[in-house]
Structure formats: structure tokens, C-alpha cells
Design brief:
- Helix content is 37%, strand content 26%.
- The chain has eleven helices and 14 strands.
- Strands 4-5-7-14-8-13-12-11-10-9 form a ten-stranded mixed β-sheet, sandwiched between helices. The protein has a four-stranded antiparallel β-sheet with strand order 1-2-3-6.
- It is elongated, with a radius of gyration of 21 Å.
């Protein structure tokens, strides 16, 4: 392992973790200390890799957990909760990004964990971490298998001077005309109002509204709504409220009078907002409340001085062309073998590909 760094599995959330966010090479809200606090008691086998310079400066945090492996394999996974977490990359200080990433993987390779395979989902397939992984593969240190790639819709503030200009560029004149008519139809009873909940108490109340709206729709009929899955709801609530207490989590409601007709959960890391989950009143589907909600969100984000971009958090089941935001972020799920010549990583990757193929066959 490079002498400049020490790496360990974190047992206590680092007090200096907030400073890491300010110069993060890649944003990951699930690697921020409030999220680590919220999930520390989750009963997982492992928590996070913590990388420091020998002078004590925090250079990286990488949340991960040991998953139940196939027989004979030991698997680490990042993020720790792939069903919900939007990003699996380590949070790295930009000034140390490449060597810190190398130090973390060398530490794993040299026996910090008995696991020899690392499954990383929701990884940005471009930029610092991506380039760093393939440089280490070129060096022969690791082997990287790309399972699937897709694109997430993004909103980049730099794409337009304000929200009005952005929406004019991203939506055709015909679409804007139709959406104005739909908004007028929705507002016959009462105007649409956007409520931003940022304080923990208000966030908790907003989350309850979100779950009520979600369970009334198709997820409720499918049995996958958070209201129907107590453990999942506790996880999302704990992270959301902990992040809100640190100014990094918020709930947005769009209401008509007193009725909530659309809702979204958001996490923030640096200048990036991550659209964690969204739902809307499906009885009003003809009036497109979800699209109107996205338009109002765009307007609100452009008014925030901290805002740089929005990551929609979508997986490979979502066609980015169906969303109003036109920038794209390349994403991937990968398997990293710490023993490049071994069969463990290849075996696990083959199993994951088969699983994905079967999932594609049964996906409606």
C-alpha cells in the first residue's frame, strides 16, 4: 500500500467528513457522514473504507457491505443498499483522488477484507473514479468487468441562464402549450404550490405524505410501496432525516389547495441534488402532474445559489428521453476482482449477467 495513506474499515463516523464534501471528485450523498450515521446501526457486516494521509487528512470514504455470497465466494458491495442508494462511488478528495482510490483497493487486495470481489452499482462511467479503476486494471492490480451501462437524465445549470430558457430549449413549443393547458385544468380548483420541507420535523411529515401518495398508485397495487415495506421505509426515513438535519436532505410537495398531488425526496452532495424518489396522484394522470412537478422543481433549483446540477437517480429501466431534462450522465454496474487471474470475479460477473438477462425477459 502506498506509504502516503492508511486505510481501515471505519468504526466511527469521522468528525472531519464534512470537509471532504467540499472538494469531492465525484459526489455521493450516501457517503456523507449524516448518511453513515443513519445507517451505522443497520447490522451490516462492514461499514465503510476510510482513507487518510499519514498526516491525518481524510482523503476518502467508501461505504460498502459484505453481502450474502454464492457458495464459495466472498462479495463486497457498494453501495451498501443497492435497491435504494443512487451512487456507489467513493467520496474522494480531488487533490488525492487517484492515489487514495489505489490505496483503498490495495488495502483490500492485501487482506484488509477476506472478500476478493467488489460489486459496484450505480457508478459514474466517466470521470475520476472510472478512469482510476481502468488505470489500475491496466497496471494489473485489479480486473474490472462491466455488467451493464445506461444513461441518466441530468439537469445542468450551465445549460441555460435560467429555468425559463432551459425549459424553452428542452421542450417543444407544442409540448409547452399542452402543458400550460394541463396546468390550467389542474388549477381550476386551486393553484399549484410547491412546498419545500428542509427541517427534520417537516421532512418527516413530508415523507408521510409521500408514502401515502405512493401507496395509492401502481406501487401500492404491486406491493412495492414504502408504506408496505417497513424496513425499507425506516431506512429511507432515517437517511432523509439525518441528511435534512445537516442541510443535505429535503422533501418537495406540489399541492393543489390542501391536497398533495406530487412529491419528491431529494438528497444533496455539494452542488448536486439527487432525485431519490418521486410519486404523483395517478387519478390526475391526464393532466401530467409529474411533468408539471418536474418543471416547478427546475424553476426552484435555478433559484438556489448552491445548485450546479440535478441527477435524476434513474436506473437502466428508465428511458431518459421520457424526462424533461436533456443532459446525460453515463452510468454502469461493474464487478471488480481483487485477484485478476482468479475465477471468483468472473464467476460472480457471469451470474450477475445471467440474472440481468432473466430480469430483462420478465420485465413488462
Amino acid at each position: 500500500m502506498p506509504e502516503r495513506f492508511s486505510v481501515m474499515f471505519g468504526a466511527r463516523v469521522p468528525q472531519d467528513g464534512a470537509a471532504l464534501e467540499k472538494e469531492a471528485a465525484v459526489c455521493n450523498p450516501h457517503a456523507l457522514p449524516p448518511s453513515l450515521y443513519a445507517t451505522q446501526a443497520g447490522g451490516l457486516a462492514l461499514g465503510w473504507l476510510e482513507c487518510r494521509t499519514l498526516e491525518g487528512t481524510l482523503a476518502g470514504l467508501w461505504p460498502m457491505a459484505q453481502r450474502r455470497p454464492p457458495p464459495g465466494l466472498r462479495i463486497l458491495q457498494a453501495p451498501r443498499f443497492p435497491r435504494y442508494d443512487l451512487a456507489g462511488a467513493p467520496l474522494l478528495a480531488a487533490s488525492y483522488a487517484a492515489p487514495a482510490l489505489r490505496a483503498m483497493l490495495v488495502a483490500l487486495k492485501d487482506g484488509l477484507s477476506p472478500c476478493r470481489v467488489l460489486s459496484v452499482r450505480n457508478l459514474q462511467a466517466e470521470g475520476t473514479v472510472w478512469d482510476g479503476l481502468f488505470a489500475l486494471q491496466q497496471e494489473g492490480l485489479i480486473s474490472v468487468t462491466v455488467l451493464e451501462t445506461w444513461e441518466r437524465a441530468m439537469l445542468d445549470r450551465a445549460a441555460a441562464v435560467n429555468s425559463e430558457a432551459y425549459l424553452a430549449a428542452s421542450l417543444s413549443s407544442g409540448s409547452r402549450k399542452r402543458l400550460r393547458a394541463k396546468r390550467r385544468a389542474l388549477e381550476e380548483q386551486a393553484p399549484l404550490v410547491l412546498d419545500i420541507h428542509t427541517q427534520p420535523g417537516a421532512v418527516a411529515a413530508g415523507f408521510e405524505k409521500f408514502m401515502t401518495l405512493e401507496v395509492a398508485g401502481w406501487k401500492g397495487r404491486a406491493g412495492t410501496a414504502l408504506r408496505q415495506n417497513a424496513g425499507d421505509a425506516r431506512y429511507v426515513a432515517s437517511v432523509l432525516e439525518a441528511m435534512a438535519a445537516a442541510g443535505r436532505g429535503f422533501v418537495v410537495d406540489m399541492r393543489r389547495g390542501e391536497a398533495c398531488v406530487a412529491s419528491g425526496l431529494f438528497l444533496r452532495c455539494g452542488g448536486e441534488a439527487f432525485f431519490w424518489k418521486t410519486t404523483y396522484d395517478e387519478t390526475l394522470a391526464r393532466e401530467s402532474p409529474g411533468v408539471l412537478f418536474d418543471m416547478l422543481i427546475t424553476d426552484w433549483l435555478y433559484q438556489q445559489p448552491w445548485f450546479v446540477r440535478l441527477d435524476t437517480g434513474s436506473d437502466d429501466s428508465v428511458d431518459p428521453a421520457t424526462l424533461i431534462w436533456k443532459q446525460r450522465r453515463k452510468m454502469a454496474n461493474v464487478v471488480i476482482s481483487l485477484d485478476p487471474q482468479g475465477l471468483g470475479g468472473k464467476t460472480f460477473a457471469a451470474g450477475q449477467r445471467l440474472r440481468g438477462w432473466v430480469k430483462g425477459l420478465i420485465r413488462p
